[in-house]
Design a protein that fits this description.
Number of strands: 6
Number of helices: 3
Shape: globular
Strand content: 35-45%
CATH topology: Aminopeptidase
Radius of gyration: 15 Å
Structural class: alpha+beta
Helix content: 10-25%
Low-confidence stretches: 111-115, 124-128
CATH architecture: 3-Layer(aba) Sandwich
CATH superfamily: Gcn5-related N-acetyltransferase (GNAT)
CATH class: Alpha Beta
Largest sheet: 6 strands, mixed
Order of helices and strands: HEEEHEHEE
Number of domains: 1
Amino acid sequence: MQDIPGNYLSRPDDCFWVAEAEVDGRAQIMGMVAVVAKQSGEERHGELFRMIISPSCRRVGLGFRMAQTVIDFCKERGFSRVVLETSSPATAAVALYKKLGFSHVLSHTETQLVQSGRWRLMIVNDKQ
């Protein structure tokens, strides 16, 4: 997070977005999300990272719009899928991922208290 340009903007298939709003005359960060390109053999996909939405902006569509921006970015680059991991037990986040078309593909437990889930959205090339 200390070097967003170096970590997310130096490669054309990675990106970082920030949503701002003016509050009391000052710009406030309301949300952010990043995507990093990954390659496995011939297949390229995007990994959604660091999606954080301000509590004051939850349940109003900002998370949906930011995640959809990542999905659209990945489609434009011809990626086969978008993946993300979450350790959040938040049902609202899970509902958002499902609404966007993600499916839960893997769970694992590192301790009795922490579970992490991997979610995947397969991208269909509708230009064919």
